[in-house]
Amino acid sequence: MLEAYRTVLQARALDDRRFVLNRAGKLAFIISPRGHEVAQVAAIAALQPGRDRFCLYYRNFAAALACGFTPEELMLAAFARAADPSSGGRQTPGNFGSRRRGVVIGSSTVGPQIPKAAGIGLALKWKGEGALCYVSFGEGATSQGDFHEGLNFAGIHRCPVIFFCENNHWAISVPQALQVAGPGVAERAAGYGMPGVRVRGDDFFAVRAAVAEAAQRARSGGGPTLIEAEVLRLQSHSTDDDQRAYRDPAELAAEALKDPIPRMREALISRGWLSPQADQAIRDDVNREVEKATEAAEAAPEPEPNSLGRHVYADA
Amino acid sequence: MRMPERTLVQAVRDALYEEMERDEHVCVLGQDVGLKGGVFKATEGLQQRFGVDRVMDMPLAESSIAAVAQGLALEGFIPVAEMQFADYSYPAFNQIVNEIAKVRYRSNGDFSCPLVIRAPTGGGVRGALYHSQSPEAFYCHVPGLKVVLPSTPADAKGLLKAAIRDRDPVIFLEPKKLYRAERQDVPPGDAALLPLGSAAIVREGKDLTAVTYGYMRAVTVQAAARLSPDGIEVEVIDLRTLRPWDIETCVRSIQKTGRVAVVYEANRTGGFGAEVAAELAERCFASLDAPVSRIASPDVPAMPFSAALEHAFMLNPDKVAAGLRQVARY
User: Residue B39 burial (CB < 10 Å; 0-12/13-18/19+)?
Assistant: First the structure.
């Protein structure tokens, strides 16, 4: 439990540092998980990294940490260094991939991982080892045809897939009202013959329980589940965006007070699992870790220019 | 031993059958590939033999056909996906171009995605605008993909078997006009295997090189025969694989003939033949006695349904012979 909390704090501290480095001109481009961290870490906490497959999307910085990426590895990606384990500095830092961790390499277009996860789910069903595929995306991706195609296929073949929508109500500047017809994303599950669950994304225990139930269903042959976790986007879409230009200042101020991390800390303290002293010790430790990761990544070598043509085909 | 006479579509089916027998990871998916055995019968009998999982009828949604194939490939299966017509592969374009083609590159070699996407291509069967297109240039433009376009039963079998065994994703385009156009002795089993990236000189000549592929191979050979009585001997090269394509065989031929025309069924502008022409012009400049020429279909959106308009669109031996004659006389 404290491990999950530590991961949430790691994500926030690393992200804060990345923004500072971006403003200092050292990092080209960042997509922040701010506001999503608790939901992401809670979802992965209900699964089995190393056994399951994870098709993550570009805001899944905290989920990547929960899947086993280290702070230094994620900083290597932020600096686009050769040792970035996801892509060796080829992709923007939100595209996570690690074969040995079961994290399937992502791309930057919106939604293609959804039907791909259905295919991975089919393969896992054939293998019959009880593994499942977890795929996450924002509510903007639910407008894509690939969302429909992926859920339709997984529904037909009862693939062991968990479709996890992190609904922060904004796709860059387009609000949910102009994005999603009907009451929300969870209701759409009914059309694909699978359960649809809406859950508060700032409630660690609720998210973990919802994903655990979906995992149980997937592993026991019960097929896929669609989960909609309602979260807040406490940062702009990316470092190239400034949401103050299109969002109501009063709403932004109100949302800033609903940061899920203090809520998680209070829940842990009220259960007696965390003391304020222990909390401070974890934070100090995480900050040191961020410091170390940043220094190591910044000092790491860039990709060799002559590696540009590598891995286009198997023999090159 | 007498080798079996097979049509091109039977040869495709034989390749699938043999590869599925050889390796239990090979599976087939697409619209109507199971119960019906494919709209062109390319997968006939496979589901009866290999079952409903390994020969899977897919929902009518091309993006998910490509995406599910990719998911299976990432898990170690070897999917052969069928797009019912190459014209219908565009809804899967993002999955093919942004996802499948770039998996290896964007993961810095950590992941790969060996699979085959088969699709009937080309016109001349009254298929009209949306069952006649030749979209090979779109896919040839994408590093990470291989593109094959055979023109005979033996080539189709040998190249499809090689494509299924390849470690990279292959777009395998089958000229539907040739599916039942001829029967040919096709070697059984692995004797049929052909390496990707190797062209065939299908007619020898000393005066002019014609580089072509797909249905245009037969048309070009007929056209070449019409020039023969006038003492013009055309060497015809069938590329067979378009990416990677066999530049060296073409260069050697042009060094001998000093003249080259590229004959292709797709629209002229930006067609794959334009790339062939550009590359050969660059490589062979000092050997050339005439400008590199393209003989291609007109730049209209696609092939119309009307027989008169289809005829007007399609290259035929007369049109190709006229084009070749111009290059020969330059």
Answer: middle
Nearest residue in chain B measured CA to CA from A149:
B64
Strand partners, A226: A163, A196
Domain boundary among B147, B164, B192: B192
What ipTM, to 2 d.p.?
A: 0.97
Q: Is residue A244 one of the residues assigned to a domain? A: yes
Q: In this complex, do B67 and A112 lie within 8 Å of one another by their Cβ atoms?
A: yes
pLDDT in tens, A267-304: 999 999 999 999 999 999 999 999 999 999 999 999 99
Q: Is the peptide bond before B244 cis (omega within 30 degrees of 0)?
A: yes
Q: How far is B87 from chain A (nearest CA, A)?
A: 18
CATH number at residue A202: 3.40.50.970
Please report how the helices A113-127 and B62-74 are oriented relative to each other, as an axis angle in degrees rounded to 10.
50
Indicate the number of domains in chain B.
2
Residue range of the domain that includes B69: 5-192
Decide if B131 is catalytic. Answer: yes
Please state the pTM of the whole predicted model: 0.97
In a domain, A311, yes or no: no
- Measured in residues, chain A has a length of 316
Task: Nearest by CB to B63, from A91, A115, A315: name it.
Answer: A115
Q: CB-based contacts of B278: which residues, under 8 Å, 6+ apart? A: none
| Last-in-domain residue among B126, B157, B192 | B192
What pLDDT digit, counting tens, does each position of A13-22 carry?
Answer: 999 999 999 9
Distance CA A134, CA A265 (A): 26
Say whether residue A316 is in contact with chain B using an 8 A CB cutoff: no
Q: What is the 8-class DSSP label of residue B201?
A: E
CATH of the domain at B173: 3.40.50.970
By C-alpha distance, the chain A residue nearest B114 is A314
Portion of chain B with pLDDT greater than 70, in percent: 99
